[in-house]
Amino acid sequence: MKLSTKNKAVRNSLISALILAATPVVSQARDQIQIVGSSTVYPFSTLVAERFGSSGKFKTPVVESTGTGGGMKLFCQGVGESNPDVANASRAMKSSEFENCQKNGVKEIVEVTFGSDGIAFANNVNNAPINFTLKQLWLAMAENGPKPEKWSDIDKSLPDTKITILVPPPTSGTRDAWNDKVMKDGCPAEVKKKDKKACKIMREDGAVIEAGENDALIVQKLEANPSAFGIFGFSYLENNSDKIKAANIDGVEISLESIQSYEYPVARPLFFYVKKAHIGVIPGLKEYLDAFTNEKAISEEGYLVDAGLVPLNNTQRSKLRKATKDLVIFSPAK
Amino acid sequence: MRNEDSLYQKKRDRRRLFADFRFRVYGILGLVLAGSALLFLLGNIFSTGYSAFQQTVITLEFNLDAEILGVTSTASPAERQEANAAKVAKNGLYVLFPEVKKSKDKRNLTKLLSLGAELDIRDLLIDKPESIGSSVTLTVPMSSDVDQYYKASLRGEQFQSRLDEQQKKWLQILIDKKIVEMQFNTDFFTRADSRYPELAGIGGAVVGTIYTLLICLLIAFPLGVAAAIYLEEFSRDSFMARMVEANINNLAAVPSVIFGLLGLAVILNVFGLPRSTPLAGGIVLALMTLPTIIIACRSAIKTVPPSIREAGMAMGASPIQVTFHHVMPAAMSGTLTGTIIGLAQALGETAPLLMIGMVAFIANVPGAPSDPATALPVQIYLWAESAERGFVEKTAAAIMVIIVFLIAMNLLAVLIRNRTRISNK
Question: Which of A121, A129, A110 is nearest to A273 (CA)?
């Protein structure tokens, strides 16, 4: 008899749990914007999303950081509620991705170029200022180069320290942009002639270390090792300027202006893509688009610029506003 | 001869005793090492994280002027929602510094205040429309930069702040006026994620975790127990049964990300459950927990002596009655312990949730399992990646919360084991 009384408690709790289980409702029509894509755009996208949601009219959009490529894949799966509405990208949509979209019925896409981003080559803040050319950076990092051990092996003017460079993993947009600028443009003609892809392979003998997507961790490592370098987005550099310092590249200092004019060699535009078919269906999507392209966000004094975005100049911005108002349909440059 | 023998004996004894002693020392050393590593880890987390439970606030007088707000007290809630609360919030600070005129300086001045000030004012407008036109005194959060700087200065540390000299001067004036203070950070427990560290909370993640674990429990527990009962009590020892058994044991060792991939392919793409929700997350984690529960339940059933079954049978009970009236009550404590351990394991998982979109920025506290949500470990991961300095302490504080969660679950397991233990004698 003792058995059953003790068990009653267990049984009762199980029954109440089952009743609880019956209450969750099946999902209704989606009333929340879904955004996927680049980890570089993520900080900006979430800021806009939060301000957008805090105005109280719409729910705060859900933003996932999947990387540009992963985001494009999800975005191009099709139209309809179960697919994301917006894809963030730190590079333009490739024509292969565009074709995939078309194939799956995502016909009309609006492209928004909302600002730029520069990539910094930075080390511990206590080091002396330093300048690298693209070629020197390529020589230090490339698999198909001479693989020098010390910076001074490349050029006498460079410091006599071991080359240690912490790089983000190949899935990251930052690495993509670095490859497209430094590894491609710094590549000597004889390697380029042989095989285009050979330029972008990084050495694996310990001088170049893949450090994961966690920028905070890289900063910690640079603090511990003054001779190491790391690769960061400009916004990250701004936020941690008390710990890390950027090197000049090709004699150009990384700054808002030099990135805006693309004078700084490792600068790139940032994008997001919106499904036109979802505008008017998913509540708030049009308003989100407006909020993101609003002067309050992306002008020189906008809050995204406070967070490290490099703004477009005035004429670019007014062009952008007109294009988003008219919802100009995107087709990839061939 | 005898002497030599006993000498040899003594030597051997000494050696044996020394070996024994050595082994004990190794054991103690190992414990000390593990203990100090744990202490170091906890100490590190605690020392970075404890400050997140406090926040820097400022008490200001806000003039809810109808003209500035652009709404009157008779406006509808929707109109009040759109009132210019931001302007009122900024003015609350401007009136203290009438000498600040340039727009650039004003912008720098407002950076001392958090976006939370604006949100608090808007909440007030929604709840109490009659306050429009009057002046109210509110205690509102300050920005994360101020928060970090102020906390560091209270600790007497040198801190490389993002505040410039002018901002520090302004802050000092406010501190001298005694309107800046520290208070317990309730926002941290009630709010969901935010890009502003001073507003970010783990409320959303905690609710998401509870929903996810609840779904996981409701699916995995009945299924797991039913499977274990069938395998132990009813199935014949056939080839099939042995195959199933081997597969269950294998499943328990499958890396958790695989379950996430399965969830993406089947639960999201085939069944079309909504992405990023505890509903989908709970199902995926249930698949992962299932083998653990089955194995725990089976071994609990195995420990029930056959005499209990035989006694039941002898009294004319059917096999089902024997199982549910006699065997399962005795096996319950082991089963529940195994279940809770399995859930605790699920609590710490991020990899499977990554695949189904629960690793995302979600700023609303979920109201139902079908709303988008994150879970605690995911929140820790997201904050650890954030660039803003204010998230460092939040990350550590969130780790403290998940540790408390784990300890609570393990305590519950012990409690249940003690309460439901039935002696078989």
Answer: A110
In a domain, A333, yes or no: no
Quick one: A128 and A74 in the same domain? no
> How many angstroms separate the Cα of B317 from the Cα of each of A267, B303, B325?
79, 20, 9
Looking from the CA of A80 toward its CB, the CA atoms found within 13 Å total 9
Using CB atoms, pick whichever of B370, B385, B389 lies closest to residue A24. Answer: B370
Q: Find chain B residues with C-beta within 8 A of A20's C-beta.
A: 214, 218
- Residues from chain B contacting residue A10 (CB–CB below 8 Å): 332, 336, 420
Predicted confidence (pLDDT) per residue in A291-321, tens digit: 999 888 888 878 888 777 888 888 888 888 8
Closest residue to B387, CB basis, from A4, A30, A239: A239
Smallest CA–CA distance from B358 into chain A, residue: A64
Instruction: Tell me the shortest Cα–Cα distance from A273 to chain B, in angstroms.
Output: 18
What's residue B288's pLDDT?
92
Q: Which residue of A has its CA nearest to B420?
A: A6
Instruction: Spell out which residues of chain B touch residue A56, defining contact as CB-CB under 8 Å.
Output: 81, 122, 126
User: Do the Cβ atoms of B363 and A20 come within 8 Å?
Assistant: no
Domain that holds residue A320: 34-116+268-326
| Boundary (domain end) residue, out of A246, A267, A288 | A267
DSSP structural state of residue A181: I
Does A7 have pLDDT greater than 80? no
Q: How far is B114 from chain A (nearest CA, A)?
A: 12
Domain boundaries, chain B: 51-185, 203-420
Q: Are A250 and A265 in contact (CB under 8 A)?
A: yes
- A204 shares its domain with A127: yes
- Which phi and psi angles does A111 have, rounded to 5°? -100, 135
Q: Sheet of B135-141: strands edge to edge?
A: B135-141, B54-63, B180-184
Chain B residues with CB-CB distance to A34 below 8 A: 275-276
Whole-angstrom CA distances from B82 to A186, A301, B74 are 52, 22, 14
User: Kind and range of the H or E element at B310?
Assistant: helix B306-314
Count the Cβ atoms, other than its own, within 10 Å of residue A20.
11
Please answer yes or no on whether A242 and B160 come within 8 Å at the CB atom: yes
Rama region for B357: left / alpha / beta (φ>0; ψ in -120 to 50; rest): left
Q: What is the pLDDT of residues B350-383, one digit of tens each?
A: 889 988 888 899 998 999 898 999 999 999 998 9
Per the structure, the count of domains in chain A is 2
Instruction: Report whether CATH 3.30.200.20 matches the domain B203-420.
Output: no
Task: Report the C-alpha gap between B331 and B334 in whole angstroms.
Answer: 6
Residues B352 and B260 sit within 8 Å (Cβ to Cβ): yes
Instruction: Find residue B135's DSSP bridge partners.
Output: B63
B50 alpha-carbon distance from chain centroid: 16
